[in-house]
Amino acid sequence: MKKRSVVILLNGEQVEARIFERLRDKSALIIAVDGGLHNCRELQVSPDYLLGDLDSADSVSEIQVSTKIIRSTDQDTTDLDKALAFALSLAPVRIQFFAAFGLRSDHTFGNMISLMNFCARNTIPVEIVDNKGITRFLRPGIHHIRLPKNQTVSFFSFGPILDLSLQGFVYALSSQNYPENFCGISNICNAEKCIIKFRSGILCMYLLHQTQL
After folding, report:
1. Rounded to two decimals, what is the model's pTM?
2. H or E segment and range at residue 105
3. Which residues contact 158 (CB under 8 A, 6 or more apart)?
4. Beta strands 6-9 and 29-33: pairing type?
5. Are 24 and 98 in contact (CB under 8 A)?
6. Model pLDDT for residues 33-52, shown as the tens digit of each residue
7. 172/116 Cα distance (integer angstroms)
8. Which 3 state secondary structure label does DSSP give 106?
9. By the 8 A CB rule, do 32 and 51 touch?
10. Helical (H) or strand (E) element with 17
11. I need a surface site. Which of 65, 68, 162, 202 has the fewest CB within 10 A?
12. Rounded Cα distance, 185 and 177, in Å
């Protein structure tokens, strides 16, 4: 079986249709998590799977016959944790989240912590798309990234980042240690080939949407 990406829709702030259509992997399997079914309806997409205890999924009877319902009544894990566990069983090459943030701040903070923990344990690329930009999670090592010149990029972490270097940015760094956390908001690319290098930690990279979106 050919490995595919997984797109997961949660019950957070609805992502605009033009952004969803522009950035989602159109060959991916789509998972709606509980109330994320409402977001699927708004975006006019039919999920391959509907996952959760379905306490927020209205009108389940109206979903397509092709949608597989995966019921989970586990109250000890969040909807996002359930989605990650199920997505792993599909052996994805990448996981994209939509509507993961917004609305309730406690859900936003909890989802970010869960994703940081997941990325510390797994090498599968993960990204979160919202109406303003894309969050990606970088593991230790050297990352060569192509970005448009003048692209606005923010970097932050929720824990130590060691030996951090940023090349190809207006605010460059060379082998700097941040024993508690790192926060670099609104950096700007000044080269198409950028290098991000660090030895320890998980670094979040937020790419602001370009105006053409």
Report:
1. 0.86
2. helix 105-121
3. 112, 113, 116, 181, 202, 204
4. parallel
5. yes
6. 988 888 998 999 989 999 87
7. 24
8. helix
9. yes
10. helix 17-23
11. 65
12. 17
Three-class SS of residue 75? coil
Tokens 């522009």 found at: 22
Q: Taking CA 78 as the corner, what is the angle to CA 28 and CA 7, rounded to the nearest 5 degrees?
A: 10
For residue 73, report the phi and psi dihedrals to the nearest 5 degrees: -100, 10
| Residues 89-133: tens digit of each pLDDT | 999 999 999 999 887 888 888 888 889 899 999 999 999 999 999
Domain boundaries of the chain, sorted by first residue: 6-131, 138-208
The yes or no reply on domain 138-208 and CATH 2.60.120.320 is yes
Query: Pairing state of beta strands 68-71 and 49-52?
Result: parallel
What pLDDT, on a 0 to 100 scale, did the predictor assign at position 213?
A: 38
Tokens 């109406």 found at? 131
Overall fold of domain 6-131: Rossmann fold (3.40.50)
Which residue matches tokens 């306490």?
55
The H or E element containing residue 52 is strand 49-52
Q: Read off the pLDDT of residues 148-189 as tens digits, 9 standing for 90 and up.
A: 889 999 999 999 999 999 999 999 999 999 999 999 999 999
User: What is the separation, in whole angstroms, between the first and last Cα of the chain?
Assistant: 33
Beta pairing partners, 188: 152
